[in-house]
Amino acid sequence: MLADADLPKGGSGDGAWHDLRMPPSDPRRPAVVAHRGASEAEAEHTLAAYKRAIADGADALECDVRLTRDGVLVCVHDRRVDRTSSGRGVLSTLELGDLEALDFGPSPSEDPQSTVDWEAPDHDRSRVLTLERLLETVLDCGRPLELAIETKHPTRYAGLVELELVELLGRFGLAAGRADRPPLARVMSFAPSSLRRIHAMAPDIRTVLLFRRVPLRYRDGALPPRFRIAGPSLEVLRAYPDWVGRLQARGHEVHVWTVNESEDVAFVVELGVDAIITDRPGPVLAQLSDQQRATGGASQGQ
């Protein structure tokens, strides 16, 4: 593990981590995780989206990572860059320089500021975002903030993704925990093999096993050995609402994705989930705050 003096700027670690069950703003509510940044307000996976999420007060940031042909981890969801950029092609066949020539922000017709902002465009806000840059942003934001990193599989680079990820997290002092706390970053995946590689290389890193459905063998709340956090979709919890209680009864956490509508937020809060992954961190935080004030007022009136 790196000594504090070896950490990047802002990464001493003291106060930079908090337990997801105890968000710094209020221990009674679930943590709010910004899915691909504040991706409803800004283009997903751009620096602008993550800065907006930080400003909105998100407890954690979520990102997907893929490996470029020259071995750089970048924050991009899709296998191809067609949907989210001005270019075309399979990301794993492109080098970082190729990606840096593309625009990952909204098109001028989609950008509400495009007709009123006469200043030179801030290309840094919409260029491809490397995981390294995002880590710097997290550690320099000046408040407790966690990062949930999803590895995308299958990929032609297989275990190289996890190898590069652990190496990069290690350089930032985020691959090993201390006696009283795990690392600030955690890794998520639908692929158990990806998370087992993380366990083998960096056992302190917390991992989240994602679910689009619930296999029969896990419906009693059990998870595979060494897994402590389940990441079900909202649709899974709609189909199996009792699964949250079963998981938590076995000591597991539940991080649900992707929750955007107010009625869905209320639903998962009622179930008692530990973290809400959302494209709308600002509005979700506002709803949780309003709900807590209403509950608190009702309690005082009794």
SSE inventory with pairings:
Layout: E1 31-35, H1 47-56, E2 60-67, E3 73-74, H2 96-100, H3 131-139, E4 146-151, H4 160-171, E5 185-189, H5 192-201, E6 206-211, E7 229-232, H6 234-239, H7 243-249, E8 253-256, H8 262-271, E9 275-278, H9 281-301
Parallel strand pairs: 1-2, 1-9, 2-4, 4-5, 5-6, 6-7, 7-8, 8-9
Antiparallel strand pairs: 2-3
Notes on the protein architecture:
There is one protein chain. The protein has 302 residues and is an alpha/beta fold. It has a single domain, classed as Phosphatidylinositol (PI) phosphodiesterase (TIM Barrel, Alpha-Beta Barrel). The protein contains nine helices and nine strands. An eight-stranded parallel barrel has the order 1-2-4-5-6-7-8-9, surrounded by six helices. It is globular.
